[in-house]
Amino acid sequence: MQELARQPSPRRAARPVQDEGVRMGEEDIGRFIAALGERSQPGTAMRYDRTLRMLHEWLPEDKRIRRGTVDLWLEELAGEGYSPNTLNYFGAVCDRWLQYMGAEQYRRSGRYAPGKTSLPAVTREEYHRLLAAAKALRKERSYLLIKLFAVTGIPVRDLGLLTVDSVRAGEVICWTRAVRLPPCLCRELLSYAAFHGRTGMIFGTRAGTAPQEAGVAKCLREVSLAAGLTGGKGTPRSLQKLYQNTLAELRDEEAMDALLEREQALCGWDV
Q1: How far apart are alpha carbons 266 and 128 in whole angstroms?
Q2: Domain of 188?
Q3: Is there a contact between 234 and 220 (Cβ–Cβ < 8 Å)?
Q4: Which of 40-44, 159-163, 166-170, 261-265 has the lowest mean pLDDT?
Q5: What CATH number does the domain containing 161 carry?
């Protein structure tokens, strides 16, 4: 297959504080697919188009691909059960689009190996970086979600059960277990609810429904990229693993509360 004509590479400017990446516009996808369709086998262009639009839908609002973005997307898909072969195909499609755009530096880091489907836990230091990034972006909702998953391990499906009343009680009765809410987290959740005039669900949508997993993942994605975390870190599952690891190490709720209060003095929302 002949190589597609590449778009002119963007002008190289002085290195910015934050990597601007390359914008993935729908028009860019359309031009690439049109060029691909002239040289590809029947059905190839359609499969490429479907894959690229999956990535486009997943991207944050700015629709930019930066270093580690494609890896993070593939990690999340792995956690949803996609096979390594499928992940490698998706990655190859993204790599080819980035080559077409003259942005090869944002390609995935490597091929997926069979069995690489579990997301790692974030470290304590990486968790602090996530909180700091959320504060820098002034994303209080994301900040609270990151902290909630990391200090309680609550499942995403049970977020709708987190209400002002349950926070005041210091406990959420979830579908599989009762989730205890540490005092420092309760204070921040109640402050957030009061500021936004919430009397029911803390994280309810504008339509009054419980938050969905896709929306939560998208909410945290911008923060994890700003914090420089890739490889599936910064997702709800990786933060829940941090909670499990910390609790197993401390083996005591009082010790956990003491740790969280110390962290609160360093990286609380109002610090």
Answers
A1: 9
A2: 124-267
A3: yes
A4: 40-44
A5: 1.10.443.10
Q: Residue 152 falls within a domain, yes or no?
A: yes
- The predicted pLDDT at position 186 comes to 96
Regarding pTM above 0.85, the answer is no
Contact yes or no for 70/87 (Cβ under 8 A): no
Cα separations (Å) of 123 from 127, 128, 129, 233, 242? 6, 9, 10, 9, 7
What angle do helix axes 183-195 and 253-267 make, rounded to 10 degrees?
Answer: 50
- Chain-centre distance for alpha carbon 190: 24
Residues 141 and 197 in one domain: yes
Q: How confident is the model at residue 77 (pLDDT cuts 50, 70, 90)?
A: confident
Same domain, yes or no: 136 and 101 = no
Predicted local distance difference test score (pLDDT) of residue 4 = 59
For residue 16, is it within any domain? no
